[in-house]
Write a structure and sequence with these properties.
The protein is α/β, with parallel strands linked by helices and 732 residues long. It is built from 27 helices and 21 strands. The strands form 3 sheets. An 8-stranded mixed β-sheet has the order 3-2-1-4-7-6-8-5, with helices on both faces. A 7-stranded parallel β-sheet has the order 11-10-9-12-13-14-15, with helices on both faces. It has a 6-stranded parallel β-sheet with strand order 18-17-16-19-20-21, sandwiched between helices. Helix 21 links the parallel strand 16 and strand 17. Helix 4 packs across helix 24 and helix 21 packs parallel to helix 25. The two termini are 56 Å apart.
Amino acid sequence: MPRFSIVVPSHGVAGRLSQALDSVLAQSFGDFELIPVCDAPDAPAADVVTGYAERDSRVTPVHSPPSDGLAGARNTGLRAAVGGHVLFLDGDDVLVPGALAALDARLDGTGDVDVLYFEHERTPWWEGEPANPAAPLLARTPDGAFTPDRAPRLTGVTLPAWSAVYRRAFLTEQDITFPGGHFTDVGFGGLVALRAERVATLRTVVVRHLLRRQGNRLGLPGEHHAELLDQTELVLTRAAEQGLPADRLKPLFEQLFAAVLKTAAHPRRLTSGRRAFFRRASTLYRRHRPDGYRAPGGSIGVQHRLLASGSYAAFRSLRAAHRTASRAAALLPRPRGLRTRLRYAAALRLPLDRNLVVYCAYWGRGYACNPAAIHAKARELAPHLRAVFLVEPDAVGSVPPGVEYAVIGSRKYWQVLARAKYLVNNANFADAVVKRPGSVHLQTQHGTPLKTMGADQATYPVVAAATGSFARLLARVDRWDYNLTSNRHSTEMWERAFPSTHETLEYGYPRNDVYCTASAEDVARVRKGLGVPDGKKALLYAPTHRDYATGFDTGLDLAEFCEAIGDEYVVLLRAHYFYDQGTSRGGGRIIDVTGHRSSEDVCLAADGLITDYSSIMFDYANLDRPIVVYADDWDVYRETRGVYFDLMELPPGRVARTPGELAAVFRDGSWADETATSLRAAFRERFCQFDDGRAAERVVRRVLLGEPPASIPPVIPLAERVPAPAATLVRS
């Protein structure tokens, strides 16, 4: 039995059908059957499908007459399916690269669930920015598998059928099929959500929905809009028969009637029969309104009350007045936003403050990374410069004494952004920040890219959706005057990922200076501060973020790992900064250092590094200490995230694929043997080119003091550098 059955109706999409089928057959995860549903053996789509079926035995076409519609085609495909899980894909949509691998990994993590909802991307047919409408809804769902009562707003009626994968036995046992007529996704999604007992979500884009030039067929004018009420009645009737609890019934009722009211008020959808539509909707509203239901506030609430009372004339007048008011209101900015813009605009008219430098790291998370290292060196070499660090309100406590700061969004924040000559960031400033003539923007970055970044993410929708508008991203890139790199690989990849006219500075990362300047006393001090016992070997475990996963999971049973490798080791756990929740995951021989401000300190304290695909490996390699790559899901990560090179071919040390293999390399000492040392040396040659301990000085002299390139200190060759000593390892 295949893992997945993928049903693809093909009526009216013969021209795009090949894209859909290719996107499935190109998946790295191959345990599936592909079921194209054609109109008839002699239909245009059937000619396309026949060629695929002859070339690939996984393609098994079936037929459904056009008169049965989309619902009939999907039901025909469902009856033919034999896979454990069923995925429906429209004939003009595509699966994103790595989609099935991500679904398989998520299902392995959650166990059998009745339905796994996932995100999808809506892509304009010609120009415009993709949208991910499911993301806000799924973001509020629990991690792992859960019962529907824990996410009552996940009603199923607002998501298309191709935004989830379904356990086939569940659909069969519950006798759930697609109801006939238009808006079948509303009925099917509602029935699935009503009967499901275990649900999970994947906050990753799996399907790319290609919008048609002529628009969605359901949005075109016609009498078919009355069928929305059929689906609404079906779902609410089943909910009543099931005795759905009030906390689940209320959001279901509200979401269904939000669609009904939108249709009732749309001047072009219902070309005739608006009054009859409204009256039937009013009857359904009164019949199924939950006990104690309170309508929303504002104009929407008024519409609810008019629908409940059946006042069609008043409803029509309200909508006409609302459209007129909306057009007028769109011309006026909101007062609060207007005040902010006026203050910022006024400050922009003032001269630049040529001695003002604004720093920001990780979108205001605190005093950290390259901006902090540049700031510290500037206090030494350019004490005449005034520096202001931008931080979020909850990061104020991370700012060291004596460092001036501004809270993001405050009046001071906009004032310094408007006046500063120098703006330094390891991410990006807000879109509203204006690049003034004469100002200097320095992008420091915050790692060496293994995974795809910037514009290169466009072909990996799993992460492209999280990136947002690429047009706005490139507009932010166009503000940069300088972009910092730590090796030639980064230089080349940043030029691809962030194409613009900025100048590249191959000066190294200032935050990594400490790896060449710290003493044994510094290492001992840091270890004591972190609570590392004397004489113990400290292994830093730093896994990266998984775009296809929800929430943080170490990916490794650390307590079991510690037990397996012996009591001479302790583990320093540093989760990705996305998961710094301020709560400890430590205990026993595991020390949670996720919340520690400085990743550089944590690296100094560690005698060895265990990571998967985190960019921390490139920084840690500067210490010339052992690195072990724990790559238990490399194939999935590579497919869903996209990478710039094959880490398995160019690792910085030993590679382990399972917990047993990982423990073994520490038990037998191979984590630090000659082979591991040789691999690390080759890795350092490629990725530690410019991090020689003087990067911050080069940046300050060139960018903040304006010294000519010829006077900037040259990079010290790798062979001549002396990395900071490890606490328990002796380097030859």
